[in-house]
Design goal:
transmembrane helix; transmembrane; membrane
């Protein structure tokens, strides 16, 4: 059960991270395609739109899965240091996302840089946790 919940965190976090990568791909490649490639643009848009639209919900699902995962592991096993580091990283990531959404109303600023930076740190935190558990 704990492993399943851990992978739920990885999957929901991964889908939330797609937001960044899909927007970059769109900005630097897809949007610059000629009109003859309209089919590619349309197909990419159909993939990108739901990911961007539901980005915050995937992040919140990752936080929910983290909470359940943490409680399950805490009540049944032991808490690992790398797990605590990954959990804190995800909590900081979600708090920054909520701050940007609720307080800054999506306006760009330092919070967005930090949110993205912590999102990439999260990759290392999760990897370390998986390798060291």
């Amino acid at each position: 059960m704990g492993e399943f919940l851990g992978w739920c965190i990885v999957v929901t976090y991964g889908v939330a991270m797609l937001n960044f990568f899909l927007k970059r791909i769109n900005r630097y490649y897809i949007s610059k395609l000629p009109k003859e490639k309209a089919v590619v643009k349309d197909y990419f848009s159909k993939i990108m739109k739901p990911i961007v639209k539901y980005h915050r919900y995937f992040g919140l699902l990752a936080a929910l899965a983290l909470t359940i995962h943490f409680l399950y592991i805490y009540l049944n096993y032991w808490i690992s240091t790398t797990g605590v580091i990954a959990a804190i990283t995800l909590v900081v990531l979600v708090v920054l996302g909520l701050y940007g959404y609720l307080i800054k109303k999506g306006k760009k600023g330092n919070w967005l840089f930090l949110h993205r930076f912590v999102a990439f740190l999260m990759i290392f935190a999760i990897s370390l946790h998986i390798l060291k558990r």
